[in-house]
Amino acid sequence: MGIRSPDLTGILNVNKPKGWTSHDVVARVRRLAGQKRVGHAGTLDPLAEGVLPVLLGRATRLADFIQAGQKTYRAVVCLGVATETGDAEGAVISSVAVPPLSVRHLSETLARFEGEILQTPPRYSALKVAGRRAYAVARGGGDADLAPRPVTVYDMALVGWTSGELTVDVTCSKGTYVRALARDIAAELGTVGYLGSLVRTRVGPFLLDDAVTLDQLAERGIEPFLLPASCAILDAPRYSADALQAARLANGQAASGAGLRAESVWVYDPDGLLVCLASADGTQLRPRLLL
Questions:
Q1: Which of 69, 66, 22, 71 is nearest to 229 (CA)?
Q2: What is the pTM of this model?
Q3: Mean of per-residue pLDDT scores for the chain
Q4: Residue 271 falls in the annotated catalytic set
């Protein structure tokens, strides 16, 4: 019986295809990599496509850090029709005439959604209400009581429009539902609407232009496209620890780090291997996440 090779550790910037769940992508990467320890950083609905960071090996510990970063989407908002699910998959539940639109009116409307806002999640969402998923309650004919939640929209830019459709680029925080934005933008314009399509173009430092397809992974394998874990926070400084510092940090203990001050620091041992993500207060390094 041969000795099993160690698991790969790193990050894949995957371009999730439309129609796949995020779990489908993870399952495919597990098979291609031949390892179980694979996860993702930020769910995309099956009808959405675009950037899905897939984490392998010890890099799975970085999921929360990556998900906390800003995300950018290109969304198509269809006006005049509302659907049960708030997207193109649901049955039509109402139709309302679309008032006359103009670039100025649209830009002013979108600007009102920038900043911190209170957003009511869609009825068909994975949020739990009294122990049940909201979408399960909705499918059963119930109406889950979803309280508005604070989210942040950093930027909302109009890309194009017709009398019945808007294309917008949205940069927002974790927890923002673009389906809910589509619904609320339509309401602000005096009509109803739903999310016609959605492409995630950025998650933190990971861009759609750099993303790899599942076909490319199948053809060429995982390793040519595997990014180091440190790509999760590109602006974090790198610190080369001595053997004693590396040993202390690897055991979850603080180590000396005089003169270094940063919220996030990538710490490497004398052999150049990544030990942890640490914080530095000017005197000590403290491990935040062991890798």
A1: 66
A2: 0.90
A3: 91
A4: no
Biggest distance spanned by C-alpha atoms of the chain: 72
Which residue reads 């942890």 in tokens? 276
Domains 10-69+205-230 and 236-290 share a fold: no
Instruction: Among 96-100, 143-147, 155-159, 265-269, name the one with the lowest average pLDDT.
Output: 143-147
Q: How far apart are CA 122 and CA 6, in angstroms?
A: 42
Beta strands in the chain (DSSP E): 10-16, 38-40, 49-56, 71-79, 81-83, 92-95, 115-119, 128-129, 132-133, 149-162, 165-172, 193-203, 206-207, 238-240, 255-256, 261-268, 274-281, 284-290
How far the first Cα of the chain sits from its last, in Å, is 29
4: pLDDT strictly greater than 90 = no
**Angstrom distances, CA of residue 242 to CA of 23, 239, 246, 248, 262:** 40, 10, 6, 10, 19
Instruction: State the CATH architecture for 10-69+205-230.
Output: 2-Layer Sandwich (3.30)
Options 7, 24, 45, 271, the catalytic residue = 45
When mean pLDDT is compared across 144-148, 181-185, 230-234, the lowest value belongs to: 144-148
Would you call 276 helix, strand, or coil by DSSP? strand
Cβ atoms of 286 and 278 closer than 8 Å: yes
